[in-house]
Amino acid sequence: MTLQLTTSVKYLKGVGPKRAEALARLGLRTVGDLLYHAPHRYLDATSVTPLAQAHVGQDVTCIGRVASTGVLPTRKGLRVFRAVLRDDSGSVLECAWPGQPFLERQIKKGQLLLVTGPVRYYHGRQLVPREFVILADEGDTGPDRGLVLPVYPATEGLTHRQIRALIHQHLESLLALVHDPHPGALREAVGLPDLRTALAAVHRPAAAEDAEAGRRRLAFDELFDQQLVHARARALAKRSRAGIRFALKKELTTRLKEHLPFELTGDQQHAIREIADDMTAPLRMHRLLMGDVGTGKTVVALFAMLLAVENEYQAVIMAPTELLAEQHVATLTRLLAPLELRPDLLIGRLSAAEKTAARERIAAGASRVIVGTHALIQESVTFHRLGLAVIDEQHRFGVEQRAALVEKGDAPDVLLLTATPIPRSLALTWYGDLDVTELRERPPGRGTVKTALRTEAARQKIYEFLRSECAAGRQAYVLYPVIDESEKADLKAATVMASRIAKVFPELVIGLVHGRLKPEERDAAMRAFRDNAVHILVATSVIEVGIDVANATVMLIEHAERFGLAQLHQLRGRVGRGAAASHCILLSDVPEAAPRLEAFAQTTDGFKIAELDLAERGMGELTGARQSGGVPLRYANFATDLPLLEAARRAAAQIIARDPALARAEHAAYRERIVQRYERGFELFRVG
Question: Which domains does the chain have, with CATH numbers?
């Protein structure tokens, strides 16, 4: 059969049904998927040490002919495969692979072998290979220099070495199928190699810098595709964004401002102005309000909702959990009481009669401010006149769910909220089709949170501190990274520790909440804590985006090194919600984690922490999977690739300005790639 990039991997030589199944687990279903399966690291074995100069204590790369092989048992019953290598000078070096007797079937006398690893002393010099490559069989001449060895993401039943061999075997025939969509002028302007050269360099680099040049090209391509999607979405939105032009009546909004029990921060005032400008313009608003923990996003959203309400429209806020929806209702009820407005609630746990009554009020227009969960997007819910849709913790909803709420109205304005601050560069990438407003300033009167890093030696003191806080009528969280004890990880698990903590504090009520509980059980545990029926809540990170418990003043995080910095920031945000001084205690006995945890402890600025997190993790994992109908980034590194992102953004904007639907022949390859790659590709790039 004729090989194409869309051909199933099972038709490649060396891939049987079992191996095809293993490849599918890695998302590699076609030969194109295999070609774009980039190594996640490289082993630099380019500088080769002659066998005679491989000294004990060194980490070396050596090349030699296999002079002899054998399998030896040890006193502990472990079988060790050993091979003696000889090079042209006649020097020999023994290599040993403990517990890998099966290598006797792979490594044969006479083969030319490259090995890399530490040299130890065991009845003489002995190299324990971390990696080996058979360079040539007996009688054949192989390269006399070292290699850069790609290490691929692997899966059960398929090692990275097997993937390397498979890609190496088929690389030439796969590269022949590749056509570069970029004109030479664009590649030259950005300083990128052509696509075939880039892919060859990624899989078979002669030096580490070749691999990096190849990665940069693949990174540019995925950023460029993403920016094309954003540029097209913006172009379509402008064309079809005739929306509601709200009038700034200042009836309800002015009364709200007069009755607020606090002063708005400068950031909040700026955000309210930006949103009001959007809502009073003829185009539909599509804005993301990105606010750090405790910066007052809900109040800003309420001003927007009241602007819709005073124009005789309904405003709705959709939250990802029932607890969060209940919290919004409590906050809005309190703030709207002087205005004689009551928000309506629609969530799954209401009785059938309550739900029916709420749906009837919404359909009749009697409900003007509505709060709910996914229950809002059911077919049975009809709005009388929806003017504004606010979506809280928007990353917790899929594209379809967000669209389903917006489609309940006739082109309503949309305001998305997120409490996960991300660097501006990342915001441009993930949310390139949105306008972004940031809230960084915290309102005065919010409690401060002191963060401290402690080791196991301080446990008793920490427990005494927890006891004194609870005795003073306050509450505490104790966080763990796993649910159950596991043999693999020596981590204290939430379920086990909840019972241990109950023994340490027999006078207190201990609660437990984790991700494997049914939603209703989890909500019940959180409600008990919210209502002060529980003193200490033992939890996993499911409380990350949780409820406001102003009375909770201590957050103890066990094995803090196991959490990402952005996640630690979200967890810390659960305390300091009231006026009392609060404390976040990071417990970790891993010395190498101390610098990053100390850096975290020294700032409470979520945007700074996002930058630290970005520098630490580098890739697009910061925001999890793509939520705007796209794919996660695989090659781009935000810590180093900002110039690439900006170049991709400029190039994409120029192309969409000239050819909005990518209808021209020279853009057909771009169009095809986006339609295949992005869920929304077809919808965005259909003709017209």
Answer: 47-145 (2.40.50.140), 252-281+295-418 (3.40.50.300), 449-603 (3.40.50.300)
